[in-house]
Amino acid sequence: MSPAAPARGPVLPGRVTLVEVGPRDGLQNEARRLATDDKLALIRRLAAAGITRIEATSFVHPGRVPQMADAEAVMAGVPRDRGVAYAGLVLNPRGAERAVAAGCDEIGSVVVATESFSLRNQGRSVADTLADWARIAAIARGAGRRLTVTIAAAFGCPFEGLVDPARVVALAEAALAAGPDEIALADTIGVAVPTQVVDLFHRLRAVAGAVPLRAHFHNTRNTGYANAYAALTAGVSALDASAGGIGGCPFAPAATGNVATEDLIYLLDGLGVRTGVDGPAVAALAPWLEDALGHPVPGQLGRAGFSTVVPRADPRPPDGLEPGPS
Question: Which segments carry the region annotation Disordered (predicted)?
């Protein structure tokens, strides 16, 4: 009797794009406000590590998110010699106009899946944010900017609990009518598990067609990395992450940090999924971040280091060509 063939796991892409959100989502919930020069130092080091998409700031009212009050100054100082696309988060048309004027390459906006959280996060009803999103999309398209919409609290809400997947899909369909270049689902409070992630992204794919899918996970309950893996099996091509795992939403109680960029790279390296990012270089940021923020960061690889036991994916594409999905 011949030996049984080894079991094969889900098909994974050959490459995934990491979107570094530390300078925005990572810093917006910090008690200590980093100086503009410190934010730019962080961005430069992330770019030097090979990150090609960085969410640099948000164009929101400084009274609501004072950590982002220097948005224009940050964008004026970002390095432009490394081919990085810089994104700005906006919540209304005025924010979109500011982001375009400041030179953002990408415009991101948010539609929250529940009324309670939408009112807390944006001070607007879901219907109003969808109307704002359509106007934001028109401004971004008119300026030739890449455009992403995120359905936030897609898996659970701190005020309303479990979110009906059918509601998320309906909101996604409405948001897709404005023609985004990418659509994301965010587990804003870190409650999802992999089965939910696979189910909801498969549902989203059914209505999104060829529009690329992106995922944003928080590791509040230690499921963020498993959820990132699950998202890749469901066709997601871009994953958000934050250096050191810092971050959280100031309007979502107990929503702790994002998945850590360096920890996620370690997982992806071991799976053979290329990111093009130097994971150890990102991990080396941990001491600097801890000193700048005044507290330890949640990420593990800054302390544990990259193991030589697990083979690392070659970050360089063969023969100078970008690999497509496997």
Answer: 304-326
